[in-house]
Specification:
Strands 2-1-3-6-7 form a 5-stranded parallel β-sheet, with helices on both faces. Strands 4-5 form a two-stranded antiparallel ribbon. It is α/β, with parallel strands linked by helices. The chain has 17 helices and 7 strands. About 5% of the residues have low confidence. A hairpin with a 2-residue loop joins strand 4 and strand 5. Helix content is 42%, strand content 8%. It binds iron/sulfur cluster and FE3-S4 cluster.
Length: 346
């Protein structure tokens, strides 16, 4: 079977490109420099990782992000190197033949394959809102997860329920981990997540042979250990109290902090400010748009995306303001009544 280096060569890349990709990979995984030589050796010899990719309540945006990964492994090399045994959108067989291919892969690579799940799960009404080949999504997920080496929930829908889970959640959408209680699930949230992060985690599993270190929400610490705000290049403006107050004023042109335009960077854990998007080219804040916290649970229900965090989360909220207004009005009315009674001498 071809090694990763063989694939690079066949695709017209040289040894330098290969080493650069492996270096980027080990660095992005937070592995020590000593791991580089081992990674080169492993990726020269190890067989392709087998991946089964299931899509449930999703928009296929996570798949789009994955196949456009560029900085860690060029996308043409990636799809050649990973043995993607089942992916409804990318595979050429369909219907009966696609389902047979999945069944065969699950038997042949029992205990060895990586199961990637995109989209939320809908158990409501016996799962009728998402079925494939007559089986409910819950049934399909449990069946594929049983013999998987590792389960990865890719995207905010699979990790938290995502947009389908937003109020009023008509299909009863829930995350993958809620169906697979007791089985380790690696969450890679984001709407979508960064393609390079998905690739790095798959390749990391090939190199180290084990799941990455996770936080209490099941997210890999390497990529979700810090907030966007922790690593944002606009942070000096935030610290200096310099904020853009509209998208087209002088302060926006000067690149001031986007907090007042609704930036949720201070509460959002993701690698956008460091890994960035499109081969490290940019990320929302660098393009002038506030982060709206797409990798956090319930980001869609958290209020208007352009409302500042202070309005959405606490220092000021409409609920608090209305409650305050009601209490203030009641106190005002009561004191006016008392004053009138006092003036009337009662
Ligand atoms: Fe923080 Fe957002 Fe301002 Fe960046 S733009 S410093 S993430 S509030
Ligand atoms: Fe999402 Fe914020 Fe990154 S909106 S893409 S987590 S900058």
């Amino acid at each position: 079977m071809e090694s990763l280096y063989d694939v690079f060569r066949r695709r017209g890349y040289n040894r330098r490109d290969f080493l650069k990709s492996v270096l980027l990979l080990t660095a992005s995984l937070g592995l020590p420099p000593s791991a580089f030589a081992r990674a080169v050796k492993v990726l020269d010899l190890k067989p392709k990782p087998v991946v089964i990719w299931l899509e449930f309540q999703d928009c296929a945006g996570c798949s789009e992000s994955f196949i456009r990964s560029t900085s860690i492994l060029p996308s043409d090399v990636l799809l050649d190197y990973i043995s993607l045994e089942y992916h409804e959108t990318l595979m050429s067989p369909s219907g009966f033949y696609a389902e047979e291919a999945k069944k065969e892969a699950m038997e042949r690579y029992k205990g060895e394959y990586i199961l990637i799940v995109e989209g939320s799960i809908t158990p409501k009404d016996k799962g009728i809102y998402c079925t494939v080949s007559g089986k409910s999504n819950v049934e399909l997920l449990k069946e594929a997860a049983k013999d998987a080496k590792l389960v990865i929930a890719v995207g905010s829908c699979a990790s938290w329920g995502g947009i389908p889970h937003a109020e009023p959640n008509p299909t009863g959408a829930i995350p993958v981990s809620q169906v697979l209680e007791g089985k380790q699930v690696v969450n890679i949230p984001g709407c979508p997540p960064i393609g390079d992060v998905i690739v790095a985690l798959i390749m990391g599993l090939v190199i180290t042979g084990k799941a990455p270190e996770l936080d209490s929400f099941g997210r890999p610490k390497t990529f979700y250990g810090q907030t966007i705000h922790d690593r944002c290049y606009r942070r000096p403006f935030y610290n200096a109290g310099k904020f853009a107050s509209s998208f087209d004023d002088e302060s926006a042109k000067r690149g001031y902090c986007l907090y007042k335009l609704g930036c949720k960077g201070p509460i959002t854990r993701n690698a956008c400010a460091t890994v960035r998007w499109n081969g490290g080219l940019s990320f929302p804040i660098q393009s002038g748009h506030p982060c709206f916290g797409c990798s956090e649970p319930d980001f869609w229900d958290r209020g208007f995306i352009y409302s500042p965090l202070s309005v959405v989360e606490g220092e000021f909220s409409w609920k608090t303001a209305l409650a305050g207004l009601a209490v203030g009005t009641a106190i005002g009315t009561a004191s006016a009544l008392i004053n009138r009674k006092l003036q009337e001498g009662k």
